[in-house]
Amino acid sequence: xxxxxxxxxxxxxxxxxxxxxxxxxxxxxxxKYALIRKIAIAICTYRGTSFQKTDLTDANFTAAKLRxxxxxxxxxxxxxxxxAASLSKARTTGTYLEDPKIRQLVVTLxxxxxxxxxxxxxxxxxxxxxxxxxxxxxxxxxxxxxxxANLDRAKLVQTQLYGANLSGASxxxxxxxxxxxxxxxxxxxxxxxxxxxxxxxKADPDPCRKPDNRNENFEPxxxxxxxxxxxxxxxxxxxxxxxxxxxxxxxxxxxxxxxxGIDPAAAAVALKxxxxxxxxxxxxxxxxxxxxxxxxRLQAKVRGAADRSQLSAEYFAAYREMSAMPYADLQSLLAGxxxxxxxxRSLESMVTTAIKSDKFYVETVxxxxxxxxxxxxxxxxxxxxxxxxxxxxxxxxxxxxNLGTISGNVTNSIAxxxxxxxxxxxxxxLLKQLQDAIEAEPALExxxxxxxxAQVQTLAEAGxxxxxxxxxxxxxxxxxxxxxxxxxxxxxTKLVAECTNLLPAISGxxxxx
Length: 513
Hints:
Number of helices: 14
């Protein structure tokens, strides 16, 4: 009798221990016990609060007790879960909360030193999260809220950040190689002393620090000024169907920030001297951006293994020396250089002309050496709006389609829109009306017309494939560029009046398709 009782007690103890272990593993999300977890949670949440299939976008569940809640297939975009209790015991089928790692992240907002490579983190609310030293290589963070987050030293390599909110975030030391950003990625008030443009490798141990001089940091506002032209260039290359990763791999850049005005002649001479001292760097000025002569950034391509920190330091040493010279002596030196290479006067003139504007961004390709011939220029005039891209101007624009060719391509793209619904037929008519209005507008320069027509073609292509997410994002960008184009025109122009009605109508139809 005693033996039987002892055996029963032992069996009960073993079963109890086993059930406790299985329950613990199931609650922690062990895939081996997924079915047990689902059954247990279904029983526990029976008659609990149900949010099944509900749109909870931007809802706030901070510190909420969610033991019996049902979130199955709900829209949880940017929902705030900070310190929510018992979320692991809620029903979360069909949501990102099914993943224990994501669940832990949104509740604790602590992802420091963790690996989120290639994870789908779209739409997460990570406001104020500690993500320092975290790895997001290939991760999707589009539409996520990262406001005020600590992303210091984070690996944002090939990370998708379309429409993400990084306002007030800290990005010091982050690696941003080939990250995917867009005009609606919010960088307002970002705190950043420096970033790295590449992951270090054996072949290239220099991870391309910005600012280039390792003894300097970005001053307030520098990071925003540094990143804005990248977004503009990204938009421009997208309209030309250029692989941005290929572009990024072709060259590294030297970024030279002037915070207290710029002397065009001194800058031209300093750059020319730098190119002569380091011919292997094959320097080419590719961008000039700023707000009048108050704050100016010069950007140059650097090829080979040139030390950009050293190049930056030597440029500013030479610039300070040149700008301290008497005006007559500097002009004499400039004239002597111009006798050998007249392009130095062109560079001085470009800087002089640009800083007379309140706000400017000029992208050009201008060789400072002798081995590369001068190429055509791309001028992008911000005009207060990031999306106002004015296209290709100046020089010999060989290889660039003329206006007639672009117009023909737009016509073909619109013609390929099907007529199988009233919405598509209306979209087709409105795009044609927009095309005609752009082509007929006398206030638009030819290069502006070409750029605007390229955006109309993008809208037509998005209408042809409404299921294509990439095309829909491109359509949103095209809308912003078109709005930026008309923003630079007088309100009395016919195109402005046309676009006031056409653009909202087209945008609405694209969402319906």
